[in-house]
Amino acid sequence: MAKRERLFLDILRDNSSVHDIPVIISKKRLSLFKQHNVKKAFFIASAPVDPDFYRALTGTLKQAGIQTTGYYLEPGGDDIMDAVRTATADLQESLEEGGSLVISYRSRFALPLIASLHIAGGSGIDEAIKAVQRMKRDAGDLAEFRGMLQTFKNSLVVPLAPAAVRNAIRINRPATSIKATASQGSTGKAEASHMAKTSSAPRGTGTTDAQSQKASVIPSAGSGPFYRSIRFKLISIISFIIIASLAGMILLASYFFKNDNRVRVQESNFQIAEVIALKIESEIERYRLISTLMLQDEDADKKAEGQENLIAAGENEILFSGIVTRRAGNNGFAFTRRYLNKILMGRYGVSEENVTTANANLEAAFPLSFGGEYQLYNPSPQLEHETFALIFPHLKTPSGEVQSIIVSYITAENLTKTFNMAGITRSFMTNFKGDLIIHPDMKLVRAGTNFAAMPICAMMMKSKLDNGQTRYRDSDGVFYLGSFKKIDRGGFGVVTAAREDEAYRAVYKIQQRNLIITAMVVIVAILIIFFFGKTITSPIIRLVGETKKIIAGQYNVDIRPTSKDEIGQLTSTFVEMGRGLEEREKIKNAFGKFVNKELAEAALRDELRLGGERKTVTILFSDIRAFTAISERLEPEEVVEFLNLYMTRMVECIEKTNGIVDKFIGDAIMAVWGTPISKGNDTENALNSSLLMRNELVEFNRDRGGTKKPVIRIGCGINTGTVLAGQIGSENRMEYTIIGDAVNLASRIESLSKAFGTDILVSEDSYRLVKDIFAFEKMKQIKVKGKIEPQQIYALLGRLDDPTRPRTLKELQSIIGISELPEYSDEALAKMITHGEDKYEIIEK
Known about the structure:
The protein is α+β, with helices and mostly antiparallel strands.
């Protein structure tokens, strides 16, 4: 077991003298020093010391086996740092061997020395100052000593860390109070514990961003901290229920048992007090009779039956008896007859002077007995022996007036036996002034102790009843269960009390035993739950792992149920769910090849219904120029292969810009933006898609040319307008599409791209929405069938933020490979009319 060293500190008054040494080095303090193995005392002074005081103090310590070393630390001295280093090193060494005492006399350097001790142990200056401030509340901030402490720290070569510094008890008390010495010990321990915790506390650590992000990620199955696991939760919940249940039972049982014990102890105390009071009352009457017989006239018959035995008993117990009368003119009192038991007085060392002093001290109580009262007092301090005084009326006139009283001093040994009893109950007797008359501890009786401030005695003195009981706390902070019984004749009361902790010892033992049983039950329960929990958590951990595979798109779940309970059923259901998800994903993937993925997911959720809703969308039509002539030169398989390659590139451009392919019409593509979900910038997305298609077509044509791989030219028409979007068809066969005049206009604009000698034409409605984003060239107005007003269209050159875009239509035609001239010639119009394309006409403007 590690040695527990202790450090004590005494700051003496500047005017301390030889007379203060019994208080400074009291027996209790010497016992405390011995308990903590104090071997050395360090006397710190900064001013001349009284040699007599120093010799007496060191002599007292030497007799107790404590060596003394003196240090004179002169303020401003050149060698003060050497002295501090020497004192600190010696104090360190002393604390390694045992306890140490630091005595400060006319010096301000004791607290800095203690701070230096902490610095030598590895503490910083601020930490050392805080430790001293905890040690002595009025130490201040020690600002004037910071320079000295810094110099001391800088002079250290290798800081030492003796355990004594960390575990020291600090006692801050003036050297004039024994009670302060006793009470400060526990405080010092608490402060030492606090310092040790403070010095060993881990420093705070920051959390990096990577750690914060990692904490937000779902941990792998079974890899998270144990406190997040189901096993831990089961253990915690069941342990809490067990602990709460047993603790509740223990508390309730202890509460009722404690109350029952309190009632029994108080009843026992009261019965004991009553029995003792009756016995003391009988003894007081016996002592009254003995005192009266011993003071009879010498010619009186002392041989009457029973009286001889009483007188013999009195000779062994009564030290003094005397008859007191009033002097003439009520001028004081006088003893008219005395009985001095010199044999008994010699045995106990009581002199006649002691008796005279006691009589003078009690004279103030005589008038009350002349009034007819019995009285009990404690003359032990004057007689220097445990004695009680009995004062009672003696002779009375026929009218009842008291003429004389008797004062008897009776040794307390016989009555003390009545108060010495086995068990936890302690009894004592006081008069109604609180003076201690009889007590098992004779030292208290001899000291003339007064218990008027004790709560039970104060209650007895104030109570109008002759008995009572209460729970009280004494000056040492110990709780008692007390009872009292008052006896009016004699003016005394018997108090019985039992320490509460001793009265409840059986309760505490049962509590301790029950707590041990509770701990054993909880430990066994934790072990059972821990291993039983594996049967629950292991399948769940496997399920979590398989769930993550499903999240990653791996639907083939390969686990088997290991039980037939709910977890086994959950495992089986989970496997079936994985298979269902796998089938659903296959269907969605297959369906997504024919329709948009969003529509496929809506169809799988059974959210598609016949009918539609009005929406503002952007429509794009794309068509291959001279596709009929191209297909005539190719085999059907070659046509399909060629179209698949072309369509794959074009569809990818549409889907990249959040568009959906509404349908394929031979070599033509119809795409739409804004349904079923609008992204807010549908027209911009549509134009971006057409530019991507232009670029993809240029790349597509790089390695083409010839009969089998003809160069492709396309035309695109874009329009924005309101349409009806929804399902068209029947309940068994439906198609998601859009219908409206805006669709027809987009188709007609696409047809004009060849005549205008460009690849992408945009309507006026689309142009207004994106004119600040894209570069256009204005075309001639057209009149479309079904439209009364002429329609303005624009050729799309590129994005305004693209520095590589074509600046003019001719530059664009060069890029995309169009060389037909002129774009608006009568020959071109004639061809269009010849082929029946009379759905529009070009208006010259």
